[in-house]
Amino acid sequence: MQRKCLATISRGLAFVLPLVFVLCVQVAFAGKPLKLLAIGNSFSEDAIEQNLFELAAATGHQMVIGNMYIGGCSLERHWGNARKDKPDYNYRKIGIDGKMTRTANYTLDKALRDEQWDYVSLQQVSQLSGMYSSFQPHLDSLIAYVRARVPATTKLIWHVTWAYAQNSTHGGFANYDRNQDKMYRAIVEGAQRLKKENAQFSLFVPVGTAIQNARTSFVGDHLNRDGFHLDLVLGRYTAACTWFECLFGTKVFGNRYAPKGLDKAQKAVAQWAAHLAVELPFECSLIDIVDTTTKVSAGGLVEKK
């Protein structure tokens, strides 16, 4: 069942939507930087390394964002690296000044002790993200490892990632019979099962649902740059908007920040896709945005008249 969001874009924006209880809400304390560390891969790179800091800053929030990056890294490999203390990571860190540093040959142990992290996020590699049987036993072991190295107040996040574009040529798409909807359903069903069976996670950030929501709009299935990684502008902005709402408990629509290259219509799609995902994290919502200043282009997202 899809939830419908109606919006009209002309000289200004007018939105009509019944407001419902927001499921994914955490509120940061004013004046205290929110510190987030992702143990991830290129999908965490897409989601939090750009736009999230700026969205927070636009509402007066400070952040420290860390990403322990290995491309295509699975939970199994993360746990193996942790167990052997392997310095296999590129540690990307955005400080409170908004500047990113990159440090090669980093260990998980060192990153977990680098800051008093408020949140640590975990995720499965994309091709296995909807295969719940692939999570264990590595996930429980990794959780125990993290818990032993962070403050008791640190909260764990499960990053609910996205399904591939329908035309993706990624080899792992075969796990879902090369069907986007099947992959999306598998991802959210896995997250629901994890939520039910593992009380360790305080937040589930439904980026996969936000991306699926955006695909129902005039944008269509154009949220990826290569069939699986997110588009550098709209795709990444949609992901960051989802993280922003979950972390700060603030509705993202109306946030003045948008990256260069994003027009008014696309910004509306991204913000509403994220907001509806936070409200309904495990089901796709229809976004019907009428845009009188742009038209859908066969070769891209939108084309100015």
Automatic annotation (TrEMBL):
DUF4886 domain residues: 35-276
Q: Which branch of life, at top level?
A: Bacteria
Q: Name one GO molecular function term.
A: hydrolase activity, acting on ester bonds
| Stored SUPFAM superfamilies | SGNH hydrolase (SSF52266)
**A Pfam family hit:** DUF4886
- Record protein name field: DUF4886 domain-containing protein
